[in-house]
Amino acid sequence: MELPEHIAIIMDGNGRWARERNLPRVIGHREGARNADRIIEACARMGVKALTLYSFSTENWRRPKEEVSALMGLIEGGISGKTGKMVSNKIRFMVSGRVHELPQSLQDTIARAAAATEKNAGMILNFAINYGGRQEILDAVRKLASEGQKPPSEWTEADISDRLYTAGIPDPDLVIRTSGEMRTSNFLIWQAAYAEYYITGTLWPDFNEAELEKAVEAFASRERRFGA
């Protein structure tokens, strides 16, 4: 079976999962964070080379302050608590997004995890935090323009790709979205131009290894044409 090199996941449905059980939304996010750990381990076992998880978007700041604070705490605690395991499992950790706008303690935690795992040669685990696809392209173009190495008329797609947050990571082959929503939500809109999409109605906390295998099997059954 053909295995996608890079899987990207829009982890949607934590709030709905909690609401269906008459629980606070933060409980749903907590269960979602626990499930992320399980899926990370499953992808590493399968031999996936890169996994990107959409953890917090630039639009998520609009949520209630209490929910945002809880999400920041869950993300920071998850990264901090799993750094040692990432080191032992040879996982290389990185973050895509406007990291400089995050709380300082989270920035420090990200920096420590990235430094501790930078020489690991196993799966790349990329957290998209304070991430927006349009913002990423804007930042890449601004960076390219500020370098002034050549005029805009000579810029290439590769020039943009090399300045995205994900520079050095292969583009995603498979994008998974849980909870059944049919939209991309500003996620990897440059990189996923030719990705295969897999939409499931399963809510993120319930998206287990068996569901992951279904997504990979669906990917393997498709003929990828890349516009040809």
Describe this protein with a few key phrases.
single chain; alpha/beta; Undecaprenyl pyrophosphate synthetase; six-stranded parallel sheet; 43% helix; globular
Can you walk me through this structure?
The protein is an alpha/beta fold and 228 residues long. It has one domain (6-133, 172-220): Decaprenyl diphosphate synthase-like (Undecaprenyl pyrophosphate synthetase, 3-Layer(aba) Sandwich). 43% of the residues lie in helices and 15% in strands. It has seven helices and six strands. The chain has helices at residues 14-20, 25-46, 65-88, 104-117, 133-147, 157-161, 209-220, and strands at 6-10, 50-57, 92-96, 124-131, 174-177, 196-199. The chain has a six-stranded parallel beta sheet with strand order 3-4-2-1-5-6, sandwiched between helices. Helix 3 packs parallel to helix 4. It is globular and about 55 Å long. The two termini are 23 Å apart. The model has no long low-confidence stretch (mean pLDDT 96).
Topology:
Blueprint: E1 6-10, H1 14-20, H2 25-46, E2 50-57, H3 65-88, E3 92-96, H4 104-117, E4 124-131, H5 133-147, H6 157-161, E5 174-177, E6 196-199, H7 209-220
Parallel strand pairs: 1-2, 1-5, 2-4, 3-4, 5-6
Helix pairs in contact: 1-2, 2-3, 3-4
